Amino acid sequence: EEMSKGVSAIKAYLDKSGFYYRPSSANGHHNFPGGLAEHCLGVCNEALRVGAGKYPRKSLIICGLFHDICKADRFYFVGREIRAHRASGYGHSKRSVLILKDHNFPLEEVEANAIYWHMKLYKANRHPFARLIFDADKQDCRNIKRKRTVRQVSQ
Question: In this structure, are strands 75-78 and 81-84 parallel, antiparallel, or unpaired?
Answer without folding.
Answer: antiparallel
